[in-house]
Write a structure and sequence with these properties.
Elements lengths: L1 E4 L1 H9 L5 H8 L4 E5 H12 L9 H7 L2 E4 L3 H9 L7 H13 L2 E4 L11 E3 L1
Parallel strand pairs: 1-2, 1-4, 2-3, 4-5
């Protein structure tokens, strides 16, 4: 599987919390390619600066140890956001949806609003 982790899913994976057995199995499978968007790191950085959450200082090392690839935001991703229906107000989630659509990734999330978009979703 080609999976894109939503922000909360990445945090849950790193802290061994709350993930469904199905999501854990898919993420840990040797047959899966796991992506973490630059938008996720951007969101984590903003929320951390505001004091809303913490994330590991060695996030880059942890992504490498878990063999997660970083997905940069490309022009095609940014332009795809424009065509998304206004079903979700969160700009970071909208970017993840666009990236999943453009790169044919399955978005691992527990966000019910994302399921309203034409994108493959694996419930977290």
């Amino acid at each position: 599987m080609r999976l894109l982790l939503d922000t909360h899913v990445l945090l849950w994976w790193l802290t061994s919390e709350r993930l469904s057995a199905r999501a854990k199995a898919a993420i840990s499978s040797a047959d899966s390619n796991i992506w973490v968007s630059t938008a996720t790191v951007w969101e984590l950085s903003i929320k951390s600066a505001l004091g809303k959450l913490t994330f590991p200082d060695d996030l880059g090392d942890q992504l490498s140890r878990n063999q997660f690839d970083v997905l940069p935001i490309g022009l095609d991703h940014a332009l795809t956001v424009r065509s998304l229906p206004a079903l979700h107000a969160d700009p970071f989630d909208r970017m993840l949806i666009a990236q999943a659509q453009c790169d044919e990734l399955t978005l691992v999330t527990r966000d019910k609003n994302i399921k309203r978009y034409p994108v493959a979703v694996l419930p977290a």
